[in-house]
Amino acid sequence: MRYLPLTPDDRQSMLAKVGAQSIDDLFVDVPEEARLTGPIDGLPMHAGEMAVEAHMKALAKKNHAAGDMPFFLGAGAYRHHVPASVDHIIQRGEFLTAYTPYQPEIAQGTLQTLFEFQTQVARLFGVDVANASMYDGSTACWEAIVMARRITKRGNAILSSGLHPHYVSVAKTMARFTKDAIAYTAPQLDAATDGQSLLDQIDDETSCVVVQYPDILGRIDDMSALAKKAQDHKALLIAVVTEPVALGAIQSPGEMGADIVVGEGQALGVGLQFGGPYVGLFGCKKKYVRQMPGRLCGETVDAEGKRGFVLTLSTREQHIRREKATSNICTNSGLCALAFTAHMTLLGEKGLRELALLNHKKAVQAADRLAQIDGAKLINKSFFNEFTLILDKDARQVVRQLAEQRILAGVSLGRLYPEEDSLAHGLVVAVTETANDDEIEALATALEGALS
Amino acid sequence: MSMLAEGRPTKQDADLNMPEQNAVTTHSGNRALMVDEPLIFETGSSDRSGVDFPEAPDVESRLGGLERAAPIGLPGLSEGETVRHYTRLSRQNYAIDVGLFPLGSCTMKHNPRLNEKMARLKGFADIHPLQPVETVQGALGVINELAVWLIKLTGMHGVAMSPKAGAHGELCGILCIRAALEARGDAREVILVPESAHGTNPATAAFAGYKVEDIPANSDGRVDLEALKARLGPDVAGVMITNPNTCGLFEPDMKAISDAVHEAGGFVYCDGANFNAIVGKVRPGDLGVDAMHINLHKTFSTPHGGGGPGSGPVVLSEALSPYGPLPFTERFADGHLTLVEEETVAERHPDGFGRMTAFHGQMGMFTRALTYILSHGADGLKQVAEDAVLNANYILRSLEDVLDAPFAHSGPCMHEALFSDKGFSNDLSTLDLAKGMIDEGYHPMTMYFPLVVHGAMLVEPTETESKAAIDDFVGAFRSVAERAKAGDELLKSAPHFAPRRRLDETQAARKPILVWTEPEEFAQAAE
């Protein structure tokens, strides 16, 4: 077997060294009645590269790859072009096959990239500090809510109706066990967000208000008033960014006063990958840093006075604090953070702003084209690269129908909110730099056909 | 020899008996291939970019009046500079590709490159999680096929695939237990966890709202069955047991533990971090386990990536399966696959505890793990466990004459060998030995874990190391251990040959610098 270097002779001599007759002597602690005597029934035996590759390729071919057809899905995962060098960098064995940097003297590569990542994320979000990543945006969002509870010692979280419904589900799931109270209602297909209603809900029992920016329907809303009201009531404003490219075009949540900013970093460097692995982004104001979850990389010096980096503030973490830790998180999303930071380094501020502008303007063009269709109405006054149409028909059916024509039209709100009949006609369409004019026209034509 | 305040030598050449080499200095401070790399914030520029874009269409913006005006402060590099930056940094990292990585409990085995190639097939890498299920039948097929393997390898009833890493899987398992207890109206408050457990276990139980109590160990490094039985009662929701445990030992009483916990109305969570030792040899389902996470990045060779992404599917017993999270795949008799998610949950999975993450889990890790599993097959996986255990026992017996091995008398170990710092010279510690191993060209073993052994050193070679590689490692380990016992002061200032000398972690924590700031701002902040 190609991954196993021991030869039969090696095994014999090693067994002799350990004083065992056979390998089973080393498994004596496993009760004999539970010990398996041969390979488990009903499972295939080992196979060579060619056979495995053929099997996996056959499975891959059954999927409609986004790049093979007009593609307009977003809603928390965005298709952007990833420069070739990003994948090259993350496949360097010294990054790919390293462990969490517990021995900093021989992990400066990972640690310095994490320090650069933290700085990029903090600047993008407009906050003082960021951590070394979380699993994904949805889990980062829940961890932020828990962090707000620790800081405010209150358990009432108010979630905006514009928050991604899967993020809401994660929060509701966890809150059921932690006994946090979650206030949330589903969104309305309207140009206005629920900002005013959120303002009215904040009181002295509120731990945090959670708003998504841009929100699930693509709308962009100023959160300064929310930040102020939250502050007046000693509650925290948590902003959630599922499309970080947007922050190349619009003000950062930190600039508007958000206390904690979390997000999904998948859009930069990581790719779609059917939902994972992704990379959770997590930043906050400096005064809350000791309440943050997750790994943190910090600067220090070595014994010769040279600058170096280490994992730090680990007294917050599970391997030191055990049941008193700020979170149970251990592994984060290191390699995806590397992809994110390498892509961001390639872009730089100039590239990020150009990319953001390109996304936005293409989306404006597409929105105007699609809004001309009889039976489709654009709800957004503002948006970045994603907007919502109200169709004359159930959008789930339209999406399925267009998929049969090999056009991936967007995300139907019926898929995201199956219980909300009022949203069944909503279709969220994302237009990134990867969509060309012909593909946008193909979508428009197919939609016209489906709605006529 | 000049010394720092804390008594460490300030200069490398003072420590080493190689004056002719160390007397040589360079203008740059670099040493041939050992090259320091500045931060991108020191070399990059906000108007430089390594990506070209076409002109944006000439249309009015619709950003709601929230255009970003102020500079963001993100430096860019050209493509060549970017590749060089990260390549230079990568060379300051130790990795499995570079050498044996004996980090106990972490299972640092070779990461096959076929896995990487398969995960990058466009049919897996370039599909969106919310595409219509008709357009992702192959992806659902991967999840389903991997799920079947995990169920059969563990002898369990079901599996939750969505948890993002081991600790997330632990949380999934504990929430299943809690949901099952709530469903029968049984509000139990306590989870029992052995002292030797990974820190994630008590952190998880606490995060899920449980009180955590210790389970005592016996002198052989195993759970004290009688003490456990004595503690069980109507307030105990369950136990979290690592098996093989963190001392590298199989819990021979596992079935009796499970029976006792079930008898008392609780559930058994097994931390599956060490499944590599037993895959294909014994099925946790046959030992009465109710839930166990499997770290695909350990047993099933998906890369650790410098700290993730991991993946932590949780296999579940029949009693807990109804409570597992959304979403999951379901295969119909005709082979068609679907996702059970919010739309069909009421009908297909009414007792599920909900959603733990936005989408379907770590698909990129599923493709890698399935590729690995198919490569090994049922016969190869059994061989994996056998070779991993043989390699660890070989190390245990090759070092027990120089290092104290606290449980070596009780019989063979599983996939990792545990040593203590007993017999070291008074002023030298496990940390010093570890740093000495760095100079020998190795990543150190796990240090100071498990907590139940003084100055613990936990060595896990994995099955992908050859006998020759292990012999070399043992030779180096013996040498450094002898130096630690003899009181060799040079170990105190090790490593001498790494890209950095020992780093000051106290300073890092006392005055945390977590982001880069412009030097003048930094100067002000320090005042």
Summarize the structure.
The complex is a heterodimer of chains A (about 450) and B (about 525). With about 450 residues, chain A is of the alpha/beta class.
Straight-line N-to-C gap of chain B: 32 Å
Overall shape of chain B? globular
Going across the major beta sheet of chain A, what is the strand order?
Answer: 1-7-6-5-4-2-3
The biggest sheet of chain A amounts to: 7 strands, mixed
Q: What's the Cα radius of gyration of chain A?
A: 25 Å
Q: Could you list the spans of chain A in which at least 5 consecutive residues all have pLDDT below 50?
A: none
Report the oligomer: heterodimer
Q: Count every helix of chain B, treating DSSP H or I runs of 4 or more residues as helices.
A: 17
Query: Roughly what is the average pLDDT of chain B, rounded to an integer?
Result: 93
Largest sheet data of chain B = 7 strands, mixed
Round the Cα radius of gyration of chain B to an integer and report it: 26 Å
Largest interface: A-B, 216 and 214 residues
Helical stretch tally of chain A: 14
- Outline of chain A: globular
Q: Low-confidence spans of chain B: pLDDT under 50, at least 5 residues?
A: 1-20
Give the topology.
The complex is a heterodimer of chains A (452) and B (527).
Chain A: H1 8-18, H2 49-61, H3 84-90, H4 93-96, H5 108-125, E1 129-130, H6 137-152, E2 156-159, H7 165-178, E3 181-183, H8 195-201, E4 206-212, H9 224-232, E5 236-241, E6 260-264, E7 280-284, E8 297-301, E9 307-311, H10 318-321, H11 334-371, E10 376-378, E11 386-391, H12 395-404, E12 411-412, H13 413-416, E13 426-430, H14 437-451
Helix pairs in contact in A: 3-11, 5-11, 6-7
Chain B: H1 12-15, H2 19-22, H3 40-43, H4 79-90, H5 113-119, H6 122-125, H7 137-154, E1 158-160, H8 166-183, E2 190-194, H9 200-207, E3 211-215, H10 225-231, E4 236-242, H11 254-263, E5 267-271, E6 291-293, E7 314-316, E8 328-331, E9 337-340, H12 345-348, H13 363-399, E10 417-419, H14 430-439, E11 446-447, E12 457-459, H15 467-486, H16 505-510, H17 519-526
Parallel strand pairs in B: 2-3, 2-4, 4-5, 5-6
Antiparallel strand pairs in B: 1-7, 6-7, 8-9, 10-12, 11-12
